Amino acid sequence: MRTNPARGPAADPRPLTGEPLPLDLLNTRWIDGGTHHDLLRYPDGLSIWLQSAGLDGDVPAGGRTLRALLATRSALASLVDSGADGPAAAEDLNETLRHGRIRRLLDQDGPRTVVETDSPDWLAAWTAAEIYLRLLEENPGRIRKCANPECILHFYDVSKNGGRRWCSMVGCGNRAKAHRHYSRRKQAAGS
Known about the structure:
alpha+beta; two-stranded antiparallel ribbon; disordered N terminus
């Protein structure tokens, strides 16, 4: 990834973007053609992710922000991927949450909500952790990992019936359909 000073960071290379912030943070790791990728380890990857998440004007793209995001991503992964529960699994995420708070105010324009963090370096990580809590309150069963065992992407199922299984029908969904079709044809040819 290279930055063109005239255009800013390069385009986001990830196959799935636009999920709620905590899942989008998890999706900074993906597999493509058997190769593991980690956007946050790419040169300019942090800037690309902050821009994609709409946080590039509010959060510095430096080492402290990166360390906060990596710690939060690790905590989210242990909670989402392993289904870990209990105090030990939540402690790492709680560590991130300790770095910020929501403050409610009333000013001349009416009620206002302000997010305050220890430093701007924690804003992206804290926001991802806070939104994860909201997703858990809303409908934890809709937080999903792609059904393709070779895929490590996550999504929040907003389908009407809650039946989404794939990170993308175009990618993993079609591969699964093609595999089932090939298996049926092979089985029929063998009988």
